[in-house]
Design brief:
mainly alpha; two-stranded antiparallel sheet
Amino acid sequence: MTISATADYALRAILVLARDGATRPMRADEIAGATGAPRNYMAKTLNALAKAGIVSSARGPAGGFALTVPPTELPLARIVDLFDEQRPHTRCMLGNVPCDPRRPCPAHSTWTRVTAERRAPLATTTVADLLAGRTSATAPVAPHAALPARAAV
């Protein structure tokens, strides 16, 4: 599945906060360093997550960002959908005409099912599942490159 760079950075930031930020808020530059994201870009991404209520933000020397939603209750779709708008299917797959669900083409129902199934893992997998290497709360996932360990501050 392909997601935008912003959604990718947002997911990485949330994973860092879920893994390392449980005991204290983390600064945007710490999160940017842990994810490899540009600092200004990460700050804007974190502010969008704060506006959506997924993280909290506090200013000052002891400030930073912290998760407001438990990782077990935070589906990946809630994060990705902030940055990657779901687009309705408007063009017929078999021609250069508008899609008409009332008079579907032969590909319509199959394509509708494929697109729904493609998105389903985001809706059913939580941040906690991802950190634990599970999908949809049950299936194990093959190992992949882990997030780098947080540097000592």
